[in-house]
Amino acid sequence: MDLTFGFAGFVVLLVAILVAAIRVFREYERGVVFMLGRFWQVKGPGLVLIIPGVQQLVRIDLRTVVLDVPSQDLITHDNVSVKVNAVVYFRVVDPEKAVIQVARYLEATSQLAQTTLRSVLGKHELDELLAEREKLNDDIQKVLDAQTDAWGIKVSNVEIKHVDLNESMVRAIARQAEAERERRAKIIHAEGELQASEKLLQAAQMLARQPQAMQLRYLQTLTSVAGDKTSTIVFPVPVDLVDALAATARKPGS
What we know:
By secondary structure, the chain is of the alpha+beta class. The chain is built from 8 helices and 8 strands, in the order αβββββββααααβααα. The chain has a 3-stranded antiparallel β-sheet. A 3-stranded antiparallel β-sheet has the order 6-7-8. A hairpin with a 5-residue loop joins strand 6 and strand 7. Helix 3 (105-121) crosses helix 5 (133-148). The longest helix is centred in the C-terminal third of the chain and has 43 residues, at 167-209. The protein is rod-shaped and about 150 Å long.
């Protein structure tokens, strides 16, 4: 009986050791293995065996992490107070560094993203912050990527989500936009007047070179106005036309 219980206990102990020694890693996971506290190697994916009590293992996810950066209060280069939030996309490319070089790399990256967002955007004016987001996204991404490289982390993209302004600044921007629209409208109107005057000058010069064309134009105007029967319009007869009729009447045989 004692031998039976002893054998059963040995089997249970062996099964427990095997369960503790077996690890299964998915395709996007890696395991950082330490041998008696010292780094040994990175294992995975698939089935991994470790020595319980001698080796310790830290599981690392290699998928891209979407980090939401909380809204940050900052002052732009032209002394405008705004609130800006963003989203950062990063992933672990070196599991060894992500475990050894930094404690809680997710929290460390989040804090670094917040400070970098304030420092980079604080160097630019409000107009740049509103109109050149792509450039600012690239600047923040490069700074973050350079600083997290020592942690084995690759920052692939940064996107500024919202820029919140106070009501007085929103009204000032609206007035500025309205003034800009009025300026453009006046310029377009002036350009139209200039083009119309140039065309009228060309038409006048062409009619001046051909008096017959002036008379035809006069008759065409009479024809178009005669169709309106709501009012009576008196047109003066051109002197050239009267002279032409008088000359015709004085011809012999008329």
